Amino acid sequence: MATIDAFFKFMHELGASDLHLSTGNKPLVRLRGKIEKIRYHTLENSELKKMLYEIAPDEKVKIFEETGDVDFGYEIPSIARYRANFFNQKWGVGAVFREIPTVIPTVEQLGLSPVITKLASLPKGLVLVTGPTGSGKSTTLATIIDHANRTRYDHILTIEDPVEFVHKSNRCLVNHREVHSHTKSFATALRGALREDPDIIMVGELRDLETIALALEAANTGHLVMGTLHTTSAAGTIDRIIDIFPANEQAQIRASLADALRAVVAQTLFRRVDQPGRVACQEILLATPAVRNLIREHKIHQIGSTIQTGRKFGMQSMDDALLDHLLAGRIQAADAYTYCVEKVKFRQYLTTTPEDFTDV
Question: What is the share, in percent, of the chain residues with pLDDT greater than 90?
Answer without folding.
Answer: 85
